[in-house]
Design brief:
Largest sheet: 32 strands, antiparallel
Number of helices: 1
Number of strands: 38
Helix content: 10-25%
Structural class: mainly beta
Protein backbone atom coordinates (compact mmCIF):
# COMPACT_ATOMS: atom_id res chain seq x y z
CA UNK A 1 0.00 0.00 0.00
CA UNK A 2 2.85 2.29 0.85
CA UNK A 3 4.44 1.59 -2.44
CA UNK A 4 1.16 2.26 -4.11
CA UNK A 5 0.60 5.47 -2.18
CA UNK A 6 4.08 6.56 -3.01
CA UNK A 7 3.45 5.94 -6.67
CA UNK A 8 0.30 8.04 -6.48
CA UNK A 9 2.16 10.83 -4.75
CA UNK A 10 4.88 10.83 -7.34
CA UNK A 11 2.32 11.04 -10.11
CA UNK A 12 0.60 13.86 -8.27
CA UNK A 13 3.93 15.61 -7.73
CA UNK A 14 4.89 15.26 -11.34
CA UNK A 15 1.47 16.51 -12.47
CA UNK A 16 1.53 19.46 -10.11
CA UNK A 17 5.12 20.28 -11.12
CA UNK A 18 4.23 20.25 -14.79
CA UNK A 19 1.22 22.43 -14.10
CA UNK A 20 3.31 24.99 -12.19
CA UNK A 21 5.92 25.01 -14.96
CA UNK A 22 3.17 25.62 -17.51
CA UNK A 23 1.81 28.54 -15.49
CA UNK A 24 5.29 30.08 -15.28
CA UNK A 25 5.79 29.76 -19.05
CA UNK A 26 2.32 31.31 -19.65
CA UNK A 27 3.17 34.25 -17.40
CA UNK A 28 6.47 34.78 -19.20
CA UNK A 29 4.63 34.63 -22.55
CA UNK A 30 2.03 37.14 -21.40
CA UNK A 31 4.72 39.51 -20.10
CA UNK A 32 6.62 39.25 -23.36
CA UNK A 33 3.41 39.90 -25.37
CA UNK A 34 2.54 42.92 -23.23
CA UNK A 35 6.03 44.35 -23.74
CA UNK A 36 5.73 43.89 -27.49
CA UNK A 37 2.33 45.62 -27.54
CA UNK A 38 3.57 48.53 -25.45
CA UNK A 39 6.62 48.85 -27.67
CA UNK A 40 4.43 48.84 -30.80
CA UNK A 41 2.34 51.66 -29.34
CA UNK A 42 5.35 53.88 -28.81
CA UNK A 43 7.25 53.07 -31.96
CA UNK A 44 5.15 55.41 -34.24
CA UNK A 45 5.68 58.26 -31.82
CA UNK A 46 9.41 58.28 -32.23
CA UNK A 47 10.27 61.72 -33.81
CA UNK A 48 6.94 63.28 -32.80
CA UNK A 49 6.92 66.91 -31.69
CA UNK A 50 4.15 69.31 -30.66
CA UNK A 51 4.84 72.68 -32.29
CA UNK A 52 3.61 75.94 -30.79
CA UNK A 53 4.10 79.30 -32.51
CA UNK A 54 3.53 82.71 -30.96
CA UNK A 55 2.55 86.12 -32.30
CA UNK A 56 5.95 87.56 -31.37
CA UNK A 57 8.97 86.69 -29.30
CA UNK A 58 7.64 88.36 -26.14
CA UNK A 59 4.05 87.22 -26.52
CA UNK A 60 2.56 84.64 -24.18
CA UNK A 61 -0.38 84.07 -26.52
CA UNK A 62 -0.13 81.04 -28.75
CA UNK A 63 -0.81 81.59 -32.43
CA UNK A 64 -0.82 77.98 -33.66
CA UNK A 65 -0.54 74.44 -32.30
CA UNK A 66 0.23 71.45 -34.52
CA UNK A 67 2.01 68.12 -34.41
CA UNK A 68 5.00 67.09 -36.51
CA UNK A 69 6.04 63.50 -37.03
CA UNK A 70 9.46 62.97 -38.54
CA UNK A 71 9.52 66.66 -39.46
CA UNK A 72 6.13 66.80 -41.23
CA UNK A 73 2.86 68.23 -39.93
CA UNK A 74 0.31 65.52 -39.18
CA UNK A 75 -3.07 65.60 -37.50
CA UNK A 76 -5.03 68.43 -35.96
CA UNK A 77 -3.97 72.08 -36.24
CA UNK A 78 -5.41 74.88 -34.14
CA UNK A 79 -5.12 78.62 -34.75
CA UNK A 80 -5.73 81.30 -32.12
CA UNK A 81 -6.21 85.08 -32.32
CA UNK A 82 -3.99 87.60 -30.53
CA UNK A 83 -6.19 87.31 -27.43
CA UNK A 84 -5.81 83.56 -27.27
CA UNK A 85 -9.28 82.76 -28.62
CA UNK A 86 -9.57 79.69 -30.87
CA UNK A 87 -10.49 80.78 -34.42
CA UNK A 88 -9.66 77.77 -36.62
CA UNK A 89 -9.49 73.98 -36.40
CA UNK A 90 -8.22 71.85 -39.26
CA UNK A 91 -6.34 68.70 -40.18
CA UNK A 92 -2.91 68.27 -41.72
CA UNK A 93 -1.46 65.29 -43.51
CA UNK A 94 2.11 65.11 -44.76
CA UNK A 95 2.53 68.90 -44.33
CA UNK A 96 -0.61 69.65 -46.34
CA UNK A 97 -4.16 70.63 -45.48
CA UNK A 98 -6.45 67.63 -45.81
CA UNK A 99 -10.00 67.32 -44.60
CA UNK A 100 -12.34 69.93 -43.17
CA UNK A 101 -11.23 73.29 -41.83
CA UNK A 102 -13.52 75.18 -39.47
CA UNK A 103 -13.39 78.96 -38.99
CA UNK A 104 -14.79 79.81 -35.56
CA UNK A 105 -16.27 82.86 -33.88
CA UNK A 106 -13.63 83.80 -31.27
CA UNK A 107 -16.28 84.85 -28.76
CA UNK A 108 -18.98 82.21 -29.07
CA UNK A 109 -16.96 79.40 -30.62
CA UNK A 110 -19.68 78.92 -33.25
CA UNK A 111 -18.68 77.75 -36.72
CA UNK A 112 -18.50 80.60 -39.23
CA UNK A 113 -17.17 78.67 -42.23
CA UNK A 114 -16.44 75.11 -43.29
CA UNK A 115 -14.04 74.38 -46.16
CA UNK A 116 -12.78 70.98 -47.26
CA UNK A 117 -9.22 70.50 -48.51
CA UNK A 118 -7.55 67.72 -50.47
CA UNK A 119 -3.78 67.82 -50.82
CA UNK A 120 -3.69 71.48 -49.77
CA UNK A 121 -6.33 72.53 -52.32
CA UNK A 122 -9.92 73.53 -51.61
CA UNK A 123 -12.21 70.84 -52.93
CA UNK A 124 -15.94 70.39 -52.66
CA UNK A 125 -18.65 72.46 -51.01
CA UNK A 126 -17.76 75.41 -48.76
CA UNK A 127 -20.33 76.79 -46.31
CA UNK A 128 -20.41 80.09 -44.41
CA UNK A 129 -22.74 80.92 -41.51
CA UNK A 130 -24.15 83.90 -39.65
CA UNK A 131 -23.41 84.15 -35.93
CA UNK A 132 -26.77 82.50 -35.13
CA UNK A 133 -25.89 79.45 -37.23
CA UNK A 134 -27.99 80.27 -40.27
CA UNK A 135 -26.42 79.71 -43.66
CA UNK A 136 -24.97 82.90 -45.19
CA UNK A 137 -23.19 81.51 -48.27
CA UNK A 138 -22.58 78.28 -50.12
CA UNK A 139 -20.06 77.68 -52.87
CA UNK A 140 -18.16 74.85 -54.52
CA UNK A 141 -14.49 74.35 -55.32
CA UNK A 142 -12.80 72.14 -57.85
CA UNK A 143 -9.01 71.99 -57.66
CA UNK A 144 -8.96 75.17 -55.54
CA UNK A 145 -11.07 77.10 -58.07
CA UNK A 146 -14.62 78.36 -57.57
CA UNK A 147 -16.85 76.31 -59.82
CA UNK A 148 -20.61 76.42 -60.17
CA UNK A 149 -23.15 78.64 -58.46
CA UNK A 150 -22.20 80.77 -55.45
CA UNK A 151 -25.25 81.76 -53.40
CA UNK A 152 -25.36 84.31 -50.58
CA UNK A 153 -28.33 84.73 -48.23
CA UNK A 154 -29.93 87.34 -46.02
CA UNK A 155 -30.34 86.35 -42.38
CA UNK A 156 -33.98 85.40 -42.99
CA UNK A 157 -32.94 82.86 -45.62
CA UNK A 158 -33.86 84.96 -48.68
CA UNK A 159 -31.28 84.89 -51.46
CA UNK A 160 -29.05 87.99 -51.49
CA UNK A 161 -27.14 87.18 -54.68
CA UNK A 162 -26.44 84.26 -56.97
CA UNK A 163 -23.51 84.05 -59.40
CA UNK A 164 -22.19 81.30 -61.65
CA UNK A 165 -18.41 80.73 -61.61
CA UNK A 166 -16.08 78.89 -63.94
CA UNK A 167 -12.35 78.58 -63.25
CA UNK A 168 -12.65 80.94 -60.27
CA UNK A 169 -14.22 83.75 -62.33
CA UNK A 170 -17.83 84.91 -62.75
CA UNK A 171 -19.12 83.37 -65.94
CA UNK A 172 -22.77 83.58 -66.85
CA UNK A 173 -25.66 85.29 -65.08
CA UNK A 174 -25.17 87.05 -61.74
CA UNK A 175 -28.30 88.18 -59.89
CA UNK A 176 -28.66 90.29 -56.75
CA UNK A 177 -31.89 90.80 -54.82
CA UNK A 178 -33.42 93.20 -52.30
CA UNK A 179 -34.60 91.80 -48.94
CA UNK A 180 -38.16 91.81 -50.31
CA UNK A 181 -37.10 89.38 -53.03
CA UNK A 182 -37.29 91.92 -55.88
CA UNK A 183 -34.36 91.92 -58.33
CA UNK A 184 -31.60 94.46 -57.68
CA UNK A 185 -29.19 93.70 -60.54
CA UNK A 186 -28.90 91.25 -63.40
CA UNK A 187 -25.39 91.13 -64.83
CA UNK A 188 -23.87 88.79 -67.38
CA UNK A 189 -20.22 87.76 -67.24
CA UNK A 190 -17.76 86.01 -69.50
CA UNK A 191 -14.43 84.94 -68.00
CA UNK A 192 -14.73 87.49 -65.18
CA UNK A 193 -15.69 90.43 -67.43
CA UNK A 194 -19.02 92.12 -68.00
CA UNK A 195 -20.41 90.64 -71.19
CA UNK A 196 -23.99 91.00 -72.35
CA UNK A 197 -26.99 92.81 -70.78
CA UNK A 198 -26.51 94.76 -67.55
CA UNK A 199 -29.65 95.78 -65.61
CA UNK A 200 -30.32 97.64 -62.35
CA UNK A 201 -33.68 97.92 -60.54
CA UNK A 202 -35.17 99.83 -57.62
CA UNK A 203 -36.84 98.12 -54.64
CA UNK A 204 -40.19 98.16 -56.42
CA UNK A 205 -38.82 96.20 -59.36
CA UNK A 206 -38.74 99.25 -61.66
CA UNK A 207 -35.74 99.28 -63.99
CA UNK A 208 -33.44 102.29 -63.33
CA UNK A 209 -30.48 101.50 -65.58
CA UNK A 210 -29.75 99.28 -68.56
CA UNK A 211 -26.65 98.78 -70.64
CA UNK A 212 -24.76 96.22 -72.66
CA UNK A 213 -21.15 95.08 -72.46
CA UNK A 214 -18.72 93.30 -74.71
CA UNK A 215 -15.80 91.70 -72.85
CA UNK A 216 -15.70 94.40 -70.18
CA UNK A 217 -16.43 97.39 -72.42
CA UNK A 218 -19.74 99.25 -72.70
CA UNK A 219 -21.07 98.43 -76.13
CA UNK A 220 -24.50 99.54 -77.28
CA UNK A 221 -27.14 101.79 -75.78
CA UNK A 222 -27.02 102.83 -72.13
CA UNK A 223 -30.30 104.08 -70.64
CA UNK A 224 -31.07 105.67 -67.26
CA UNK A 225 -34.65 105.94 -65.98
CA UNK A 226 -36.56 108.12 -63.53
CA UNK A 227 -38.48 106.28 -60.76
CA UNK A 228 -41.69 106.55 -62.80
CA UNK A 229 -40.07 104.74 -65.73
CA UNK A 230 -39.50 107.78 -67.95
CA UNK A 231 -36.15 107.96 -69.71
CA UNK A 232 -33.62 110.20 -67.97
CA UNK A 233 -30.62 109.69 -70.27
CA UNK A 234 -29.66 107.80 -73.41
CA UNK A 235 -26.06 107.34 -74.52
CA UNK A 236 -24.66 105.22 -77.33
CA UNK A 237 -21.33 103.43 -76.88
CA UNK A 238 -19.03 101.54 -79.16
CA UNK A 239 -16.49 99.33 -77.35
CA UNK A 240 -16.17 101.66 -74.37
CA UNK A 241 -16.35 104.98 -76.21
CA UNK A 242 -19.29 107.33 -76.60
CA UNK A 243 -20.37 106.99 -80.19
CA UNK A 244 -23.79 108.18 -81.29
CA UNK A 245 -26.55 110.09 -79.50
CA UNK A 246 -26.26 111.64 -76.07
CA UNK A 247 -29.64 112.67 -74.68
CA UNK A 248 -30.45 113.98 -71.20
CA UNK A 249 -34.04 114.75 -70.15
CA UNK A 250 -35.91 116.49 -67.34
CA UNK A 251 -38.40 114.41 -65.28
CA UNK A 252 -41.28 115.67 -67.42
CA UNK A 253 -39.58 114.34 -70.54
CA UNK A 254 -38.42 117.71 -71.91
CA UNK A 255 -34.86 117.79 -73.27
CA UNK A 256 -32.03 119.00 -71.01
CA UNK A 257 -29.16 118.14 -73.34
CA UNK A 258 -28.75 116.94 -76.90
CA UNK A 259 -25.44 116.01 -78.51
CA UNK A 260 -23.70 113.53 -80.78
CA UNK A 261 -20.37 111.80 -80.12
CA UNK A 262 -17.85 110.04 -82.34
CA UNK A 263 -15.09 107.85 -80.84
CA UNK A 264 -15.54 109.43 -77.41
CA UNK A 265 -15.53 113.08 -78.55
CA UNK A 266 -18.42 115.47 -79.24
CA UNK A 267 -19.15 116.06 -82.90
CA UNK A 268 -21.50 118.65 -84.36
CA UNK A 269 -24.04 120.68 -82.43
CA UNK A 270 -24.45 120.39 -78.66
CA UNK A 271 -27.36 122.18 -76.97
CA UNK A 272 -28.45 122.37 -73.32
CA UNK A 273 -31.88 123.65 -72.25
CA UNK A 274 -33.57 125.18 -69.23
CA UNK A 275 -36.69 123.36 -67.93
CA UNK A 276 -38.91 125.82 -69.82
CA UNK A 277 -37.23 124.87 -73.10
CA UNK A 278 -35.08 128.00 -73.54
CA UNK A 279 -31.45 127.44 -74.55
CA UNK A 280 -28.92 127.34 -71.68
CA UNK A 281 -25.78 126.52 -73.72
CA UNK A 282 -24.87 126.06 -77.35
CA UNK A 283 -21.68 124.79 -79.02
CA UNK A 284 -20.50 123.27 -82.27
CA UNK A 285 -17.67 120.71 -82.25
CA UNK A 286 -15.33 119.26 -84.84
CA UNK A 287 -13.41 116.17 -83.69
CA UNK A 288 -13.93 117.13 -80.06
CA UNK A 289 -12.76 120.75 -80.43
CA UNK A 290 -15.15 123.73 -80.32
CA UNK A 291 -15.35 125.10 -83.84
CA UNK A 292 -17.15 128.24 -82.64
CA UNK A 293 -17.27 129.93 -79.20
CA UNK A 294 -19.25 128.05 -76.57
CA UNK A 295 -22.05 130.36 -75.49
CA UNK A 296 -24.07 130.10 -72.26
CA UNK A 297 -27.32 132.05 -71.82
CA UNK A 298 -29.47 133.43 -69.02
CA UNK A 299 -33.09 132.25 -68.95
CA UNK A 300 -34.07 135.58 -70.58
CA UNK A 301 -31.93 134.68 -73.60
CA UNK A 302 -29.07 137.14 -73.06
CA UNK A 303 -25.49 135.87 -73.09
CA UNK A 304 -24.05 134.88 -69.70
CA UNK A 305 -20.65 133.67 -70.95
CA UNK A 306 -18.82 133.34 -74.25
CA UNK A 307 -15.70 131.15 -74.36
CA UNK A 308 -13.39 130.93 -77.38
CA UNK A 309 -10.85 128.19 -78.19
CA UNK A 310 -7.94 127.83 -80.62
CA UNK A 311 -7.54 125.02 -83.14
CA UNK A 312 -5.85 122.81 -80.52
CA UNK A 313 -8.85 123.07 -78.22
CA UNK A 314 -7.16 125.43 -75.72
CA UNK A 315 -9.20 128.19 -74.11
CA UNK A 316 -8.05 131.64 -75.30
CA UNK A 317 -10.77 134.07 -74.19
CA UNK A 318 -13.60 134.07 -71.63
CA UNK A 319 -16.16 136.89 -71.55
CA UNK A 320 -18.74 137.16 -68.77
CA UNK A 321 -21.90 139.31 -68.80
CA UNK A 322 -24.71 140.49 -66.53
CA UNK A 323 -28.32 139.72 -67.58
CA UNK A 324 -28.55 143.32 -68.89
CA UNK A 325 -25.72 142.46 -71.35
CA UNK A 326 -23.20 144.62 -69.43
CA UNK A 327 -19.70 143.12 -69.52
CA UNK A 328 -18.44 141.78 -66.17
CA UNK A 329 -14.97 140.74 -67.26
CA UNK A 330 -12.89 139.67 -70.22
CA UNK A 331 -10.11 137.21 -69.46
CA UNK A 332 -7.42 136.03 -71.85
CA UNK A 333 -5.74 132.63 -71.59
CA UNK A 334 -2.50 131.01 -72.68
CA UNK A 335 -2.36 127.22 -72.55
CA UNK A 336 -5.67 127.23 -70.63
CA UNK A 337 -4.26 129.53 -67.89
CA UNK A 338 -5.28 133.14 -67.23
CA UNK A 339 -2.74 135.62 -68.58
CA UNK A 340 -2.52 139.41 -68.63
CA UNK A 341 -4.68 142.30 -67.42
CA UNK A 342 -8.32 141.79 -66.41
CA UNK A 343 -10.86 144.53 -65.78
CA UNK A 344 -13.95 143.82 -63.70
CA UNK A 345 -17.10 145.99 -63.91
CA UNK A 346 -20.35 146.30 -61.98
CA UNK A 347 -23.81 146.01 -63.53
CA UNK A 348 -23.84 149.76 -64.31
CA UNK A 349 -20.55 149.50 -66.19
CA UNK A 350 -18.37 151.11 -63.54
CA UNK A 351 -14.86 149.80 -63.06
CA UNK A 352 -14.45 147.84 -59.81
CA UNK A 353 -11.09 146.16 -60.16
CA UNK A 354 -8.02 145.73 -62.31
CA UNK A 355 -5.91 142.65 -61.72
CA UNK A 356 -3.05 140.97 -63.57
CA UNK A 357 -2.45 137.26 -64.15
CA UNK A 358 0.66 135.24 -64.95
CA UNK A 359 0.32 131.53 -65.70
CA UNK A 360 -3.06 131.32 -64.01
CA UNK A 361 -2.14 133.20 -60.82
CA UNK A 362 -2.66 136.82 -59.77
CA UNK A 363 0.72 138.48 -60.22
CA UNK A 364 1.68 142.14 -60.02
CA UNK A 365 -0.47 145.17 -59.19
CA UNK A 366 -4.12 144.82 -58.17
CA UNK A 367 -6.27 147.96 -58.03
CA UNK A 368 -9.64 148.21 -56.27
CA UNK A 369 -12.21 150.98 -57.00
CA UNK A 370 -15.41 152.15 -55.31
CA UNK A 371 -18.81 152.52 -56.99
CA UNK A 372 -17.90 156.04 -58.07
CA UNK A 373 -14.88 154.74 -59.96
CA UNK A 374 -12.31 156.11 -57.50
CA UNK A 375 -9.19 154.08 -56.66
CA UNK A 376 -9.37 153.06 -53.00
CA UNK A 377 -6.73 150.37 -52.61
CA UNK A 378 -3.66 149.00 -54.32
CA UNK A 379 -2.15 145.59 -53.64
CA UNK A 380 0.94 143.76 -54.86
CA UNK A 381 0.67 140.06 -55.60
CA UNK A 382 3.30 137.49 -56.46
CA UNK A 383 2.38 134.10 -57.94
CA UNK A 384 -1.07 134.10 -56.32
CA UNK A 385 0.05 135.39 -52.91
CA UNK A 386 -0.50 138.94 -51.65
CA UNK A 387 2.65 140.73 -50.55
CA UNK A 388 1.97 142.62 -47.32
CA UNK A 389 3.33 146.14 -47.06
Amino acid sequence: MKSGNQAINYRTFISESLSKMSQVYRKVYVLNLAFILILSMFLPCFGQDTIRTYYDEDSVHIKEILTKINGKAEGEVRLFDINGKLILIGNLKNDQRNGFFYDLDPESGDTLRIVEFKNNLREGKALSYFADGRLSQESNFVNNQLEGVVISYFEDGQIRDRTTFRNNKPDGLSEAFYPNGKPKTKINFLGGQFHGPYLEFDENGQIVFSSNYSRGLVDGQEIQYFPDGKVKAVRDFRLGELSGVYELNYPDGKPERRATYTKGSPEGEMIEYYPDGSVRMKAIYQKGIPATPIVSFYPNGTIRQRTSYNSQGEKVLEENYFPNEQLISSVRFQKDLEEGEVKIFNEEGNLLEIRNYSKGRIHGKRELYNEAGQLVKTEIWENGNKINK
